[in-house]
């Protein structure tokens, strides 16, 4: 649904009480922010976000919208005004959402950086502020582990190894091999070895608990104060799924601590600033993340960064085969191949 009038009807029918105090002559504007987010605003300063779920009944991970919204309500209560997350505003009928599809929350005013903004390198103060937020969020997951965690190990590594192998077999059985497939074949031996080494490390690890983590803690999901440049909140929890806390940290650090040149590299010194503060907050918080040392945590995160790069590589190739119009080109494959290689050869040995 892209028609503005349809959105106006949804809002007027389900949340009329929010705008009842506004002068009837005051115009309300609806602006598309992204695929599933619409800004509802008026000159009186009232601003809300109308959000649509990824499907009519379930999230990408199979959890329903009711679960996601309860997750946000519980998280907001735990954060106790220290940080903000989107929480649903009840409809006039007391419902959290409309037809398991649309829900509304108060706009969180602040600054959000683009994921592709390579001009802004997050400094020590910003990374410490970010670490405090993420540690608080992870303490919420640990203290609510009875309902938000599982002891089942993730099988991402095995899945990726099989996917690489199957794709390679399909390529070699074809009559002609184009440049993309030729590049894929050339990358296969190293990526397979990196994943097998990562799988071996996972099997030796005593850390098997997975939590319903955010999985996408990158710059576009973090809100900063416009005045103090401190972190004030997190956005977009629709992709929560079971994985280790290290996966959350890997996505976070590989996007907040990238080097200005080349961008495939994660700045190890800035990573350590974040990890040191994160561990400090976790050890002093209500919940203990683990008995791991900072160095062990560093290696766990780097291992996940390598895994993320392998995932992105295989996804881009999947696009080439199944959604060719969205294929990002050989340069994108090269980027993630080099990212996995650099972290395996340099970062994980530090």
UniProtKB/TrEMBL annotation:
SUPFAM superfamilies with a match to the protein in the record: Protein kinase-like (PK-like)
InterPro entries: Aminoglycoside_PTrfase (IPR002575), Kinase-like_dom_sf (IPR011009)
Superkingdom, natural source: Eukaryota
Domain Aminoglycoside phosphotransferase: residue ranges: 33-270
Gene3D superfamilies: 3.90.1200.10
Protein name: Aminoglycoside phosphotransferase domain-containing protein
Organism from which the protein derives: Adineta steineri
Taxonomic placement: Eukaryota, Metazoa, Spiralia, Gnathifera, Rotifera
